[in-house]
Amino acid sequence: MKKIYIAKWMFLFLLAICPAVATAANGDPVKGDPINSETLILDVPTSETLDRYQASFLTRAYDHGTVMETIDFGIYPRINLGVSVAAHELLGSSDSVRILNPDFQAKWKVYDGNLYLPAISIGYDGRRYGYGYNEQRHYTRSKKYLDNRRGGYVSFSREVFIPGLQMSAGANFSDFEWKEFYMFTGVYYKIAGQASLLAEWDNIRNIRDSRFNAGVRFYLHPSLALDGAVRRIGRGDESERILQIRYVTNF
């Protein structure tokens, strides 16, 4: 029990100090510059990457009191590397908090796109959601996940139809296995620079496995955005509400 509480408070401490340390050392992005690198819609990856010497801190709170912290760095032009770690049942009154195995992600933007062709990125995303479900998709405190990791993927992105409407689409191989081949697509539309509407259809192989997610992103500050969304819409008990905040700074 004591070890659980120590791990819990260490996790909270890291969530609190990481953005503060980066800010104190290097300062916020230039005032007036928006978060212009939308590397994710909600779960669907776009083709955008962080600029070199940028860092992104994404904190997501979701089903069963789980909190995930994702940290991404622009280490080279067009190349991002990151790591994620989650604490299951951290929020609430549960006394069985579990720190889940960390995952990592990487992305390389291989083509910027032009008037006729979309931007292209390839990457890997090891994050998984929905910890504690069995094969019948019931929450039973097992060690299995409701969603598999995205694994290796390729993403295509460009503006479509009207100014400000950005679309991404692509395919991924969960665990790099052909039998785990999926597709994904999503859009976001910025409204007067203050908010974005988000929608995506993810994990597309058949209707049962696919997920429809939608939400709104509010730009609270040139370097801070807040998302409220619903994942697995129309899936009954599997549907979940998520809240996430993203902070971007330079290092």
Overview of this protein structure:
With 251 residues, the chain is mainly β. The chain has a single domain (2-250), classed as Porin (Beta Barrel), CATH 2.40.160.40. It is 10% helix and 47% strand. Strands 1-2-3-5-6-7-8-9-10-11-12-13 form a twelve-stranded antiparallel barrel. β2 (66-76) and β3 form a beta hairpin.
Report the mean per-residue pLDDT as an integer. 86
The best one-word shape is globular
The largest sheet is: 12 strands, antiparallel, barrel
Number of domains: 1
Sequence stretches where pLDDT stays below 50 over 5 or more residues: 1-34
Strand content: over 45%
Number of strands: 13
Helix/strand structural class: mainly beta
CATH fold-level topology: Porin
- The CATH homology group name: monomeric porin ompg
Total helices: the number is 1
**Over the alpha carbons, how many angstroms does the gyration radius reach?**
18 Å
Q: Please give the order of strands in the largest beta sheet.
A: 1-2-3-5-6-7-8-9-10-11-12-13
Element order: H for helix, E for strand: HEEEEEEEEEEEEE
CATH architecture: Beta Barrel
Present the secondary structure layout.
Layout: H1 2-26, E1 54-62, E2 66-76, E3 79-88, E4 98-99, E5 103-111, E6 119-125, E7 151-159, E8 165-173, E9 181-191, E10 195-204, E11 211-221, E12 224-231, E13 240-250
Antiparallel strand pairs: 1-2, 1-13, 2-3, 3-4, 3-5, 5-6, 6-7, 7-8, 8-9, 9-10, 10-11, 11-12, 12-13
